[in-house]
Amino acid sequence: MKTYRIATIPGDGIGKEVVPEAMRVLDALAQLDGGFQFEWDILPWGCDYYLEHGEMMPEDGLEILKKYDQIFLGAVGLPELVPDHISLWGLLIKIRRGLKQQINVRPAKLLQGLESPLKNPGNFDIVVVRENSEGEYSDSGGRMHSGSDEIAIQNAVFTRKGTERAIAYACELASKRSKKITSVTKSNGLSHSMPFWDDVFHDVVSKYDELQQSSAHIDAMAAYMIMKPAEYDVVVASNLFGDILTDIGGAIMGSIGIAPAANLNVEREYPSMFEPVHGSAPDIAGLGVANPLGQIWTGKLMLDFLGHEQLGEKLLSAIEYTLKSNIKTKDLKGSATTTEVTDALIAYLKQS
Ligand code: NAI
Ligand code: MG
User: Fold this and answer.
1) Fold classification of 116-253 (topology level)
2) Check: complex ipTM more than 0.95
3) What's the predicted TM-score (pTM) here?
4) For ligand 1, is residue 293 a contact (CB within 6 Å)?
5) Of 15, 7, 3, which Cα lies nearest the Cα of 282?
């Protein structure tokens, strides 16, 4: 039987609650399939690890991760004890960059049984492809002087290779979906990086005759995702813009607690990392009320990447089943616990 070795990093806060739930679901699916199994190695990295060892993960953490098929991560962050830039740069960004997970894929889709906060959401089904390795999230820059003379400089770094890679991935995806692609820009305000982005988009998309293409400024796009999300399909954006739009994607679905994400090493040279959009939610950690669906849907993205798309579809309909049956956590105005949602979902999988 095929065994997938998964480096499992529950992380902090609700990550520790939702990761085991998603593991149970994925194990149930593997059992139903009968052709493969998961081997979950739990790596206790994150803020607790930092408080004990002074680092978010061991020095040879990346080397350890390289030995696995994929990485399944919950969330990291314990903002009261560890500054967020340390937890983010010491683990997540280190892994994304060190393992060349250059593409971040984040679907936002109106699920059956979910109430969008929008009055007229339409039947939207968007995938945001976010450049994941450079752009505005760069450590080029610094701070100097103090007091009223203090200066902060944060440089954005756009390479032709990185930009082309993200846009080409998005074009391929759009070709397989509804053949519509929208590039997110801000070439009026950012006068170097974004005209460059637009040029690369133009070069790449011109090779795809079948695609219907458009561009929108990030500020307008933020509004469009709220006013008319059903008009979009594949949306390609830089690191910062994609980050912002995917929180909107989560919000218009009904809760950030259900939004999934994948950090892909497209060439499959290193493992990819699957993690939900949400963070460690310290405000509800330990209460047993975290929504497990974001982590579970993230599991579907991992199944898809491993080539089990049919099981992935099955998982998505099981997610919709719990929502239609009103077995929902508090963030979706329900009263079910984290475990109750997962139990109902697994019971449905087993009898369907
Ligand atoms: P957050 O996503 O943790 O929480 C935002 C709001 O959404 C909170 O009210 C929270 O209760 C709610 N929420 C999030 N996930 C939920 C779920 N599954 N079920 C029910 N409600 C949910 O974002 P926030 O508060 O900005 O960050 C908290 C910590 O998480 C920080 O340390 C931050 O750096 C970290 N973080 C980590 C991420 C990661 O590891 N990928 C991503 C985003 C934030
Ligand atoms: Mg974000």
Assistant:
1) Isopropylmalate Dehydrogenase (3.40.718)
2) yes
3) 0.92
4) no
5) 15
